[in-house]
Amino acid sequence: MSAVATAPGSAPSKSFRDVWLITIGHSLTHWYPATFYLLLPLIGKELGLSYSEIGFIMTCQYVAGAISNIPGGMIVDTVGRQGLLMAVSLFWVGFPYFLMSFTHSYWVLLLCVMLVGIGNNLWHPTAIPTLAQHFPDRKGLALSFHSMGGNVGDALAPLAIGALLAVLSWRSIVIVNVVPGLVMASLILFYLGALRMGRSKAKDRSDVQKQEGQSVKEYLRGFSELLKNRELFLLALGSGFRSMTQNGLLTFLPIFLAYEMGYSLFWVGVCMFVLQAAGFAASPVAGYLSDRMGRRRILMSSMMMTAVVLAFMAFAGRSLAFVFLIAVLGFFLYAIRPVLQAWTLECTPKKMGGTGIGVLFGVQAVGSSIGPVIGGALADQYGLMSVFFFLAVTIVVANLFIFFMPSAPGGSQARMAAD
């Protein structure tokens, strides 16, 4: 407990630098999937894929992520070494996209996206509890910066890749695209991982790692308690349906804009940028308000507005109003990510933070894997517009799970204090 007591005196400046490193790294874990969403229409046309087959690509990625999340959380909670794990995750996300440039096989493509799913879902159980430990009283605000990093990656990738597609093929783009990930993984490894050189800093980091690690026996005891945590699983299920909404939208919105509205890939990228830029603006607002007004109120209002906007989009059809509503949708859909993460950590014992986030993202990955394949089947049968009605229903279901959550974590915070 003494280490925890003395941390606030020295943490702020170090934490501020670390939070920006982690935030930039997070932006790249989103940059790569956002790039792929924009390339999907081209890949689908080149390989002659149906809507269902395109949806199944994303399903495979998120099934792999769902399977890997809890083991990833276990590694984080037992080993520590956050810097090393984040660097490995970042490399693991980017490299499979590089491999895609050499394949003309649908099945090899599926294997590559499954590898991406594993790497991408090692990041969150590592990064999110690390930031929460630095800002215990301002989790919502701290995690909103991390979430903003994801929005930056999601927003800039389609804009940049849409412009690059004017001069490069999609295969050339995925080759060049691996470079930023390698650079950032090296920086994270140097400043937050095993290569950190300063003696006093190395000693401080060693002390932190000793504090954060635990034996397998201790972990299994904590994990058995975690399985009984009703609050955690309500949040995870609600977040899973929200992720079904989000990933279904990210899969089929670019396809709708390209196929049905006839937009060039550059303008598709602009529309996806608008979606994410609105989320970038919303994240710190939602995080700050959730620290002051409570997580439940912010989550429920944002989810309800998401459902309303999706329904309006479905009725707007192929019009300019549809494009305007994309920005409104992004504001509400992405505002709640840091709020969900902060509430999850408040429902989870401190030493099980990685696994708690792993459970959250594991269930989210299941939802993300289901959304595209159902959306693809609906689009093949009833047309692309039916997908947006389906997504409006999924976000309403997500809100129902949040409705049954208590207004405050209550006993969970007491468990955290005890740990």
Question: Describe it for me?
Answer:
The chain is an all-alpha fold and 419 residues long. The chain has a single domain, classed as Growth Hormone, Chain: A (Up-down Bundle), CATH 1.20.1250.20. It is built from 17 helices and no strands. The termini are close together.
CATH topology: Growth Hormone, Chain: A
CATH class: Mainly Alpha
Q: How many independent structural domains?
A: 1
List segments where confidence is low: pLDDT < 50 over at least 5 consecutive residues.
1-15, 194-211, 409-419
Q: Tell me roughly what share of residues is in helical segments.
A: over 70%
The helix-strand sequence is: HHHHHHHHHHHHHHHHH
Mean pLDDT across the residues is 77
How many individual helices? 17
- CATH architecture label: Up-down Bundle
Gyration radius over CA: 21 Å
Superfamily at the CATH H level?
MFS general substrate transporter like domains
Percent of sequence in beta strands: under 5%
Distance between the termini: 10 Å
Note the main sheet.
none
List the helices and strands and how they pair.
Layout: H1 2-47, H2 51-79, H3 82-100, H4 106-134, H5 139-164, H6 170-176, H7 178-192, H8 199-212, H9 216-226, H10 230-260, H11 265-293, H12 295-316, H13 320-335, H14 337-346, H15 353-382, H16 385-403, H17 411-418
Helix pairs in contact: 1-3, 1-4, 1-5, 1-7, 1-10, 2-4, 2-15, 3-4, 3-6, 3-7, 4-5, 4-15, 5-11, 5-14, 10-11, 10-15, 10-16, 11-12, 11-13, 12-13, 12-16, 15-16
